[in-house]
Amino acid sequence: MRYISTRGEAAPRGFEDVLLAGLAEDGGLFVPEAWPRLGAAEWRALRGLPYAELAARIIHPFTGGALGFEELHALTRAAYAGFRHPATVPLVQLGPRDFALELFHGPTLAFKDVALQLLGRLFDHVLARRGERITILGATSGDTGSAAIEACRDRAAVDIVILHPRGRTSEVQRRQMTTVLAPNVVNIAIEGSFDDCQDLVKAMFMDAPFRAEMRLAAVNSINWARIAAQIPYYAAAALALGAPERAVAVSVPTGNFGNVLAAWAAKRMGLPIARLIVGANRNDILARFLAANDMSVRAVEPSLSPSMDIQVSSNFERLLFELLGRDAAATARTMRDFRATGRMPVPDPAWRAATAEFAGFSLDDAGTLAEIARWHREAGYLADPHTAVGLAAGRACAPADRGVPVVTAATAHPAKFPEAVERATGQRPPLPPALADLHAREERLCVLPNDLAAVQGFLRRHALRNAA
Ligand SMILES: *Cc1c(COP(=O)(O)O)cnc(C)c1O
């Protein structure tokens, strides 16, 4: 299996290179040269497998022989051993045709753990074989940072440095990062905003000598391996509900379009997914695109589902590439125009192709609270605000055929957003026991000014200390 760039100007690569590179050097995103496809008998053979084995079976074709099946299976077993539920990603029935696929039983209570717990181990495995080390560098406004830190803690070949804006993340979010005391984890609180943190990270990646010296790498959501690691849970849900004989619809609360793209990839692999439903909060660019081919950027507005407060969904480029018939030149042109004008000129046939597979729906904060209250009242279920957007989208866009179940990706544990849940239901969801003492744990972080030289100097000194 080789990977090509959506912009066509980068040489094809194998799985390991794509894992370590993240973005292609032409600015495009890597996609498989061809999609692996499973027949009905092959899907049936996956029914009832433990999740770690199912995941290894589905991801293995994407590794193109870079890892043996048993090697990969050992990594998926280790990745999911720490999840708090024996099913790893349990499917919970909420209504006659409504199901929540709970993806939040990992260490940081959000779905990003499912991919990142595997990614950290894949990095370590590949780097150990090559005798190399990397430093993962990223900026976070909250959730992604903690999931990346949990994924990289105690990995032998990886250091991780995460910048967050000092005093501008929630207490739980900060503590989930700063109470990880592993020696390869560095938390830096920047005296500035999240944008300042992102600018510092960008500047460090653009500083080629520094980038090479520190062997900087990223784990952001455009990394192909993250998408691949999100495909298996859609298969697990569909198989449990009767696939390949019975189709399901999937509803995904969406930000960067990574999670719903994984569902689309599962469909490309032959899983019968009747409809892909995209849930958005008031930042509704994807819903506007699907409703009226209006992909135009507006200012990001804060909402109760902050992990979806995004205007430019970076993974959309992968779908665009397919909608444009895998025409890399047209994809590159469209993305350039989008960047320059804030409007994406998607040709009408490509837009129609998108609307044949995807439906979009957006919900404001009041609607989100009402949806949380509804599921609490009707099913005794506490949904976090992101999950609530997905559940509402699933109801609004469910296929007419009532025999098609609607599976909503439950992307965060309700205890991660206790204020919203309490406002809607009067109940404050408690943290799971493993995190109950979070507020009593020791923190380690370093506060630095919003100054590139200061941050780079700090990283150099830290790297020297680790090498000694
Ligand atoms: C990251 C995140 C999302 C959005 O996922 P994308 O892959 O960016 O679409 C939704 N919900 C929660 C809780 C998240 O952390």
CATH-derived architecture of the domain at 91-108 and 225-425:
3-Layer(aba) Sandwich
CA-to-CA gap between the ends?
Answer: 39 Å
CATH fold category name of the domain at 91-108 and 225-425: Rossmann fold
Mean pLDDT comes to 95
Q: Order the strands across the largest sheet as they lie in space.
A: 3-4-12-9-10-11
Number of strands: 13
CATH class of the domain at 91-108 and 225-425: Alpha Beta
Count, helices: 19
Hetero compounds: pyridoxal-5'-phosphate
Low-confidence stretches: none
* Helical content band: 40-55%
| Spatial shape | globular
Most strands sheet: 6 strands, mixed
Determine the strand fraction and express it as a percent band. Answer: 5-15%
| Structural class based on helices, strands and sheet pairing | alpha/beta
- Provide the gyration radius in Å: 21 Å
Short description:
The chain is α/β, with parallel strands linked by helices and 468 residues long. The protein has helices at residues 15-21, 40-45, 51-63, 69-81, 112-130, 143-152, 171-178, 194-206, 208-214, 224-240, 258-268, 285-292, 316-323, 328-341, 348-357, 365-379, 385-396, 418-425, 452-467; strands at residues 3-5, 30-32, 91-93, 98-102, 134-139, 158-165, 185-191, 216-217, 248-253, 273-280, 358-362, 406-410, 446-449. Residues 110, 112, 143, 221, 253-259, 307-308, 386, 411-412 line the site of pyridoxal-5'-phosphate.
Structure overview:
The chain is an alpha/beta fold and 468 residues long. The chain has a domain at 91-108 and 225-425: Rossmann fold (3-Layer(aba) Sandwich). The chain is 46% helix and 14% strand. The chain contains 19 helices and 13 strands. It has helices at 15-21, 40-45, 51-63, 69-81, 112-130, 143-152, 171-178, 194-206, 208-214, 224-240, 258-268, 285-292, 316-323, 328-341, 348-357, 365-379, 385-396, 418-425, 452-467; strands at residues 3-5, 30-32, 91-93, 98-102, 134-139, 158-165, 185-191, 216-217, 248-253, 273-280, 358-362, 406-410, 446-449. The strands form three sheets. A six-stranded mixed sheet has the order 3-4-12-9-10-11, sandwiched between helices. Strands 8-5-6-7-13 form a five-stranded parallel sheet, with helices on both faces. Helix 7 (171-178) links the parallel strand 6 (158-165) and strand 7 (185-191). The protein is globular and about 60 Å long. The protein starts with a strand and ends with a helix. Bound molecules: pyridoxal-5'-phosphate.
